[in-house]
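> example.struct
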């Protein structure tokens, strides 16, 4: 039995980076929604913050859907 340690390390590194990126993107979306709520509560407009939050959530959804597509196909 032969283990290709370089390939295993490469897969580990890429999966770690993608995981950190997705979690960070989702956290930005939650922060954007929070900023939107606080701006609305203070009587301001929250269009940019909410739009950015929805864009972050859409990118997260697209990344997860792409991962599922890679696994299934």
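> example.seq
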């Amino acid at each position: 039995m032969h283990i290709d340690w370089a390939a295993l390390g490469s897969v580990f590194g890429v999966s770690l980076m993608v995981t950190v990126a997705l979690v960070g993107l989702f956290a930005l979306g939650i922060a954007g929604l929070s900023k939107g709520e606080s701006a609305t509560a203070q009587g301001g407009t929250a269009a940019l913050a909410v739009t950015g939050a929805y864009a972050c959530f859409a990118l997260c959804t697209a990344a997860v859907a792409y991962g599922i597509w890679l696994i299934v196909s």
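> remarks
Residues 9-72 form one domain.
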